[in-house]
Inverse folding.
């Protein structure tokens, strides 16, 4: 068969005997064709191809399953991170688990460890406060220590186990209120626990209360004082301090807080700064510090028509119709002819008719002259009037102004720089207002920023040193509310003061007469010396005129250092060993028998 494979079969036959040498061998060759099997070969090939395809598909499936596993693992990690409040993780996967471990440690394990440390610190702090030392204390240890304290507290009578701690405060106050006489009950028990005799604790506590009251009253004889009395004296001290340096009621000061004492300390600093700049008296009232109610007692009304002024919402207010209130400050006076008075009106609201507000200076409670600056809402200008020592009007000028609530208006009397007490000026927030008219006086001064009394008849001297404020309404009513009031000296006082009116006293102890002003303030130098001259007219030989010294030095008047006799009397005194600083010399009067009248009183002081 052509093209077929050929196979040969060789057959050999042996002709020799068995076991003999084969020398005669014949070979038969048979040739036959091999038929091919095409279907079997094809099947084998197909199987091999299929196997290859399966291996490829298995590789692809392996990759898909690997990616799916990565996504599942990444989703689980991000779910945990989100639950912890952390951001999602993007990859790569080979660093994901390490980063996940770090994130959990930083944001969960470490804070929890820190919180545990803080809790331990708190427990240790409580334990230390209860008397235990060291660190690492447990809650049971603290509980045991606290229970021991409660047991001792119960022994004092302050703690009733049936009522818990609810009665602790009231029981403590009862113990303190037992301060008068013997301290009993609570103090006895507490003293026993403290290892002190109850009588010792009682004596010490009572002594502390007595010391407070004695210091406040400057009276060492006051003993067996109560807690309530000591509290009242402390309140009086704080409010009196505030009043003395910020212009309040010093005779019966109202309740005050520690914050008021801080304000008083600030006022002292301002006062000392003013003295350092050559001035002396300074008073400043902020009515927001006053309680709602009647007009403060530091004011006296020299014109009192209609309804009085009251403190309302932090303002000294007049809000009734047909009322005129002109007040002067009665708790202090200026010490020189060079002074100024200021006011701020937060509310200035006319009704159907005009209203007016005013400042006054150079006023005397005895009715002597004054300088008054008044703003009238109906006219739209300030009118400034000056009087002589008898109260007669001398001059009047006008300054146009658009009234501005909360602006500070200041009436200035005297020019310390030129030593001329007859120059007057009105300021608005520190800037002078221009004179626009002179109804009475020297009209040539129109256009000037100050007015000069060339007649020199305006009130000056020790009898014209008070300052005040006023408000006026008409039938249409209106509201006037003053938020701040202050006055101060602009120069040192002169070393001489003179008061003329004749006034009497029958007091056997030194006292002031009705007309004030017979005092001067002098800065004592490093020598510590001052010469004081006293002059007066006395109706009786039983009269005495002494000098009270206050400020940097405190010396009470005495008979030994007084001028006395009949008619004109005189005394010259030398004080030495004084402390440096501003010192006030004030005349006081007494009688050894009956009533004595004094007049033409004069005090002169020269620092040596």
């Amino acid at each position: 068969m052509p093209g077929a494979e050929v196979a040969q079969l060789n057959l050999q036959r042996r002709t020799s005997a068995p076991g003999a040498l084969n020398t005669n061998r014949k070979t038969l060759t048979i040739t036959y064709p091999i038929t091919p099997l095409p279907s079997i070969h094809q099947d084998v090939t197909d199987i091999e191809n299929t196997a290859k395809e399966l291996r490829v598909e298995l590789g692809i499936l392996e990759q898909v399953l690997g990616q799916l596993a990565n996504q599942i693992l990444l989703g689980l990690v991000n779910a945990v991170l989100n639950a912890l409040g952390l951001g999602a993780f993007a990859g790569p996967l080979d660093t994901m688990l390490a980063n996940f471990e770090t994130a959990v440690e930083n944001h969960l394990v470490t804070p929890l460890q820190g919180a545990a440390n803080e809790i331990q610190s708190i427990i240790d702090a409580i334990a230390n406060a209860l008397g235990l030392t060291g660190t690492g204390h447990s809650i049971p240890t603290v509980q045991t220590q606290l229970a021991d304290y409660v047991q001792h507290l119960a022994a004092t009578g302050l703690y009733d186990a049936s009522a818990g701690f609810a009665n602790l405060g009231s029981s403590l106050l009862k113990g303190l209120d037992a301060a008068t006489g013997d301290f009993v009950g609570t103090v006895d028990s507490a003293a026993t626990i403290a290892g002190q005799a109850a009588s010792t604790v009682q004596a010490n506590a009572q002594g502390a209360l007595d010391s407070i009251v004695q210091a406040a009253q400057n009276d060492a004889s006051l003993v067996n004082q109560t807690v309530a009395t000591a509290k009242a004296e402390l309140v009086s001290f704080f409010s009196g301090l505030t009043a003395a340096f910020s212009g309040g009621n010093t005779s019966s000061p109202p309740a005050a807080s520690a914050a008021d004492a801080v304000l008083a300390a600030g006022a002292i600093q301002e006062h000392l700064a003013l003295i350092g700049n050559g001035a002396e008296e300074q008073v400043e009232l902020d009515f927001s510090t006053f309680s709602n109610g009647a007009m403060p007692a530091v004011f006296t009304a020299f014109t009192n028509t209609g309804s009085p002024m009251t403190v309302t919402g932090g303002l000294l207010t007049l809000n009734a119709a047909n009322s005129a209130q002109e007040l002067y400050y009665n708790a202090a006076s200026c010490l020189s002819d060079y002074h100024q008075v200021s006011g701020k009106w937060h509310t200035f609201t006319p009704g159907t008719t005009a209203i007016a507000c005013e400042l006054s200076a150079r006023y005397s409670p005895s009715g002597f002259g004054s300088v008054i600056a008044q703003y009238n809402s109906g006219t739209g200008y300030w009118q400034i009037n000056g009087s002589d020592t008898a109260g007669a009007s001398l001059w009047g000028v006008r300054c146009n102004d658009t009234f501005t609530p909360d602006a500070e208006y200041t009436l200035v009397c005297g020019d310390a720089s030129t030593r001329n007490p007859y120059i007057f000026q009105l300021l608005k927030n520190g800037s002078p207002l221009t004179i626009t008219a002179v109804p009475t006086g020297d009209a040539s001064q129109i256009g000037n920023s100050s007015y000069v009394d060339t007649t020199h008849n305006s009130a000056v001297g020790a009898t014209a040193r008070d300052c005040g404020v006023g408000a006026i309404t008409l039938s249409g009513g209106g509201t006037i509310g003053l938020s701040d009031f202050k006055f101060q000296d602009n120069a040192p006082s002169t070393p001489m003061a003179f008061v003329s009116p004749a006034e009497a006293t029958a007091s056997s102890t030194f006292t002031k007469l009705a007309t004030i002003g017979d005092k001067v303030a002098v800065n004592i130098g490093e020598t510590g010396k001052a010469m004081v001259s006293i002059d007066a007219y006395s109706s009786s030989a039983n009269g005495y005129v002494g000098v009270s010294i206050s400020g940097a030095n405190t010396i009470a008047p005495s008979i030994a250092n007084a001028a006395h006799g009949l008619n004109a009397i005189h005394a010259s005194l030398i004080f030495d060993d004084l402390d440096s600083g501003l010192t006030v010399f004030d005349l006081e009067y007494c009688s050894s028998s009956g009533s004595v009248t004094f007049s033409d009183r004069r005090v002169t002081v020269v620092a040596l």
